[in-house]
Design a protein that fits this description.
The chain is built from 6 helices and 2 strands. With about 150 residues, it is mostly helical. The chain has one domain. The chain has a two-stranded antiparallel ribbon with strand order 1-2. α1 packs antiparallel against α2, α1 runs antiparallel to α5 and α4 packs antiparallel against α5.
Length: about 150
């Protein structure tokens, strides 16, 4: 399964330009790898705090989206788009895992904390390569919910 993309129409104004989606993924990968290389869980805390508002309130609260709009201003009008619901679902998974990692670090379980953060980095890295794990999970969730509620 590849990344779901589409060209923006008037009804899809909230969809996220693909360059911004990729910036989000690269931010996670680079941030987590930097935290691991420095053996500094506070880097993952910063990533958690960056993702938490966007998970709770959507793209209007996204620091990465705001930076991406500035960096990719020329590309955005013609860029392919990702459904904002997929991005929010993916960010919710990343935020949950990073939040659980913070709990693990505080409880003195660094191996668990780093494992959870590496799961986020792995998923983001695989998505950069073309297979969106979170998108696949979202599709499976929607499909099974439909089957359950319409059986």
């Amino acid at each position: 399964m590849t990344e779901p993309t589409r060209v923006q129409t008037g009804a899809e104004c909230a969809d996220i330009p693909l360059p911004v989606v990729k910036l989000n993924r690269w931010t996670l990968v680079v941030g987590i790898m930097a935290g691991l290389a420095l053996r500094q869980p506070l880097v993952t805390t910063a990533l958690f705090l960056i993702l938490l508002p966007v998970t709770l309130f959507g793209q209007k609260a996204s620091l990465i989206f705001k930076v991406g709009k500035l960096l990719f201003a020329r590309q955005i009008p013609t860029a392919e788009r990702e459904d904002h619901r997929l991005q929010r679902f993916n960010n919710a998974i990343a935020t949950t895992l990073l939040g659980l990692a913070q709990v693990a670090f505080v409880l003195g379980l660094p191996a668990l904390g780093w494992s959870l953060t590496l799961a986020v980095a792995l998923a983001a890295g695989v998505a950069i390569a073309g297979f969106c794990v979170g998108c696949f999970m979202y599709y499976q969730f929607k499909l099974n919910r439909y089957r359950l509620l319409n059986s």
